[in-house]
Protein 1
Amino acid sequence: MILTLKGLPNPRQAEFFCSTARHTAYGGARGGGKSWAMRRKMVLLALSYPEINILILRRTLPELRENHVIPLLKELKDVAKYNATERVFRFPNGSRIKLGYCDGANDIYQYQGQEYDVIGMEEATHFTEEQMQFLTTCNRTTRMDFSPRMYYTCNPGNIGHEWVKRLFIDRQFEHGESPDDYTFIPARVWDNDVLLKADPDYVKQLEKLPEELRRAHLDGDWDVHAGQYFREFSRQKHVVAPFDIPSWWKKFRSIDWGYNDPCAVLWHAVDSDGRVFTYRELYVREMRADVVAKKIVELSGNENISYTVSSPDMWQKRGAILKSEGGFEGECIAEMFMHGGVALTPADNSRVAGWQRVRSFLADAPDGKPYWQCFDVCSNLIRTLPALIYDRNNREDCADGNDHAPESLRYALMSRPMKSIMPVYKKKVYDPLATDEKYTNRFMEF
Ligand SMILES: Nc1ncnc2c1ncn2[C@@H]1O[C@H](COP(=O)(O)OP(=O)(O)OP(=O)(O)O)[C@@H](O)[C@H]1O
Ligand SMILES: [Mg+2]
């Protein structure tokens, strides 16, 4: 057997090789040697563990062919047999590496019922969170000598930017996710000596990119990314520490309803300049409408809420009368909310105009501060708003994805919140010298 694997791993690649975490991501800047490391790691696993079953995925077939099939055919010549129809490399020790892609939303289901000891997701940010979650259900093993794991390579940007950032950069975990399972290895082009020597101009090309792209592709900065819809969003400018909101500020709420998808409820307050502050969020999944309504009432306390705008689809009649355990009945979700003490107004759902409205609120007012700011407790809104990316087919719109909290914000800002006007409390004093005209009212106001 002649193995034609050339090159030694750089220190970052070596870290990637050594990681046995349940989920290991290797990512950041372009050209660090991530794809090389992914291919090499999978081959090393196939050689080390007889009969191991490995899946390497890329989003599209042409990318898969260029990045993995062609290089692996060269590297594994005389080592593993390739079946082009199945796209599988079979090793003499019974191990197999399957190369797959899932371009369309449903392509992922071809892996249903299959079992892979290791899954490698190349350019993981090109996959949606749902696709990743589905793939984790195929990542299991019956062997005693190996723990199942997933390896990811990624650059900032694209449809999966937000879940990769949440798990590996921000390390904000949700129910059922254990922090110890997630390891991140940063990639920089400067790690890759081979590339720097062979193509010294590559770094210069990255340096010439426009500011945001340069920060993402050269510095591996996860706060900006290619295709970002709201580039104007800045944590420094738009996120503020909570403060006591004057009682006279107009307050209102917005809801993007979801049951399987998250339900995003936001509370907003408007100051006397018309600046809107989003001061609270409720972000829940799989919670019944009447329970959400109850929670909203609880969280609102004795605040004076002027109105609540919400997704127009909450008025869709569901056919049957819905009855909650609490006894509320309704033909639609909005009615259930109303019974729960939260009266709703259908929001203006124009997407493109609505996103423009959000954009104009992100802009600076004459005092140098943006027209919209958000309390730092609204973590889901702060995470998902900058993660929105442009829709590939409609450059005016953003792509569907984890946009529930931003949609709720859009509904809020489309409701044209009016400035709050500080009430003037007039004092009345007795004026004994009042003239005849004033006789009937001897109390003067000032
Ligand atoms: N340790 C190594 N030894 C030899 N060649 C390497 C090594 N690491 C990377 N390379 C080569 O460097 C080049 C860039 O590496 P690679 O394509 O893996 O980078 P990448 O991080 O995946 O880039 P991108 O972000 O564009 O996807 C490739 O030609 C690859 O074969
Ligand atoms: Mg790559």
Protein 2
Amino acid sequence: MTADWKQVEEALKDIEVVGHDNNKPVSVIGLSEELRCIGIGTDAAVFYHPNTPNYAYKVYSPQSIEKKEVEAGIYKRLEGSPYFPHCYGTGPNYLVLSFEQGITLYDCLLHGIPVSEQVMQDVEDAREFVRGLGLNPRDIHLKNVLLQEGRGKVLDVSEYIKEGNDSRWEHLVWTYNHFYPLISGVQVPLWILETITNWYNRIDSASFGIEDFSKRVSQLFFGKRN
Ligand SMILES: Nc1ncnc2c1ncn2[C@@H]1O[C@H](COP(=O)(O)OP(=O)(O)O)[C@@H](O)[C@H]1O
Ligand SMILES: [Mg+2]
């Protein structure tokens, strides 16, 4: 039997995803009448097709195509966990994932939607689960976590076979505990979020301290607090 998502492969052929250097988001070239882009990352763009509403199609750029099979393999190991999407299969340049409702934590900051401690705990539990499988939960940042009916869902598992701690989630936890109460519910302007992101990405990780970083960001954008 042919999987029902196979019918979307023709439409996906009209789309080209192009990667860029320096951690920049991919570009999407081409159009397909029914495909809707629901997310952009640095390796891939993610699409939705109304005929198959339960699926999300993660289409990789040629520059990142080797991550497709890696990510599919990791999803296989994560199978059955409620903290992650389900992977149904693969096409030539895409993964077929469960379509996940909700918005990223990045969009929560943008729109002033409060992120509860439950969401933070869900990500912690997801990370524990990943470690239990002998994998390394890396690359967990604001655009890779969804707020879904008050719970957290973790996207983008492609780096879990890499070594080392990128500390991204630990930095977010620190900031959540020390700084987030001051801005919870506040709509943070896009230019501020993007400036902080760029600044963070350019920092030299060897001498990086999140406390210092947060202080500088806080003072620059939100003023001195006594
Ligand atoms: N299964 C999904 N359901 C709904 N949206 C998704 C899904 N997977 C990814 N997205 C959206 O697409 C964006 C990019 O996907 P991601 O897997 O993070 O790509 P990359 O590996 O290039 O970073 C995410 O930030 C999210 O907004
Ligand atoms: Mg991502």
